Amino acid sequence: MAKAKHPILVLAGAEQGDLRALEDYRRVGGYASLEKARKLGPGATLEQIKQAALRGRGGAGFQMGQKASFLPSPGQAKNPIYLVVNADESEPGAFKDREIINRVPHRLIEGIQIAALAIGAERCFVYIRGEYLSEYEVLSAALAEAEAAKLVSVPILVHRGAGAYICGEETALLESLEGKRGQPRSKPPFPALVGLYNSPTLINNVETIATVPKVIELGGEAYAKIGVKDSTGTRLFSLSGDVVRGGNYELPHGTSFRELIYDCGGGIAGGRKLKAIIPGGSSSPVLPADQVDLSMDFDSVQKAGSFLGSASVIVIDERACLVQLALRISQFYMNESCGKCTPCREGTRWIEMILRKIEQGRASMAELDLLSDVCDRVLGKCLCALGDSDAMAVASYVKHFRAEFEAHIEQGGCPYGDTSSLVGVRSPVDEIYRGRIGQEAAL
Ligand SMILES: Cc1cc2nc3c(=O)[nH]c(=O)nc-3n(C[C@H](O)[C@H](O)[C@H](O)COP(=O)(O)O)c2cc1C
């Protein structure tokens, strides 16, 4: 949990214990924002969200109010308007949405009702990661309680996914929700105009929606004063990796990586040196250790060449071989590529194969250039950002740690030998590669 001097908004009231029961949530002012929004009416409620400049917490960081304003108004829409909440949370390093659902499920439900009111939605859906069974049960129980208390005026359906990372991509999610294979749609049209069942649809992340009650409680302008310009409010930072106290820390945007890692997370065990930081989940480009004093806000991290993304901060200490780390990440994206578009399907495989060759000491310098070339050929050419995520992440490891890649090639093997902290942590897809020696030899 965050230190007391920081404002806590999304997890407010849960400092002493979970707020799963309706009466506990009510005790900390729960559902007062919904009442306030009902008095304000749809237009003024949406205006508060716009004034808050609330940026999406799922990855792309688009302003929620702006996205909502792309929807037709309920009077103009030919089809019903839908609200979809993205609770797929499958990005390696991300585990904040599950904590919100587990600890303050009613804040999500209240946020859904306020957002539905603001956009004139007829029905709401929560698409929850299939593996989050206990979170599904907690949310379903809270929903049943809220329904019984007549707090839910726009129906909410909770739908469980079946374990595919791609279904977190908003259009693949919609396909999956419609009962089809979860693969991205080509865009435009964007979901705001043609979304679920061809209807105008607003899609937002769990944390984005769970922030809405506090926006209404404080007022948009007051909310926008928390954090920094263009990255307003607090954020749940999921801290993991080589750090003493991993976990979710709710802190204002603008807090530095150093404060998160050392003050909140207790630093790195054994006094080891920081080597790199992944700032926004595995899909975000890696930052070298000298960026530790960078402010954790959307624009600062982007200026430094990466993304804040889902604010999933992974700490990497000096023991890690970064070729192994890039390889591990590329294996994830290769395995999760849905195969619908060629640059991603083929590109993620090529990236993984070349990295594997480098790690095993079988690659030439020309193949290191080939790796960068393949990354360039994937970037910006895929149906969705999955291929881009792989290409951008891998390219960043080569950019910042090129000497380490070259050392593998020059020495004909991993300079870390068996000492890398990643050795022995077998990826579940490793078995697959055993049958792929032929392909690798042909490379
Ligand atoms: C491959 C892929 C996986 C994604 N997974 C998630 C996810 O698990 N949860 C999420 O909220 N957004 C995910 N996104 C982003 C969504 O497409 C979308 O931008 C987000 O749900 C919008 O909500 P927000 O504006 O509140 O951030 C993913 C995107 C891609 C390309």
Task: Describe the overall structure.
The chain has about 450 residues and is of the alpha/beta class. It folds into 3 domains: about 20-225, Rossmann fold; about 230-315, Roll (Ubiquitin-like (UB roll)), CATH 3.10.20.600; about 320-440, Up-down Bundle (de novo design (two linked rop proteins)). It has 19 helices and 11 strands. It has a 5-stranded mixed sheet, with helices on one face. Strand 5 and strand 6 form a beta hairpin. Helix 5 (about 95-105) crosses helix 6, helix 14 (about 340-360) runs parallel beside helix 16 (about 385-400) and helix 16 packs across helix 17. The N and C termini lie far apart (about 50 Å). Residues about 435-440 have low confidence and may be disordered. Flavin mononucleotide binds near residues 58, 60, 90 and 168.
Q: State the end-to-end CA separation.
A: 49 Å
What's the structural domain tally?
3
Heteromolecules bound = flavin mononucleotide
Going by CATH, the homologous superfamily of the largest domain would be NADH-ubiquinone oxidoreductase 51kDa subunit
CATH hierarchy, class of the largest domain:
Alpha Beta
User: Structural class from helices and strands?
Assistant: alpha/beta
Largest sheet: 5 strands, mixed
| Model regions low in confidence, pLDDT < 50 over at least 5 residues | 434-438
Spatial order of the strands in the main sheet? 8-7-11-9-10
Mean pLDDT figure: 94
Order of helices and strands: HHHHEHHEHEHEHHEEEEHEEHEHHHHHHH
Instruction: Work out the helix count.
Output: 19
Beta-strand residue fraction: 5-15%
What's the architecture of the largest domain, going by CATH? 3-Layer(aba) Sandwich
Binned, the helix content reads 40-55%
The tally of beta strands, per DSSP, is: 11
Principal-axes geometry comes out as globular
Tell me the radius of gyration: 22 Å
- Give the CATH topology of the largest domain: Rossmann fold
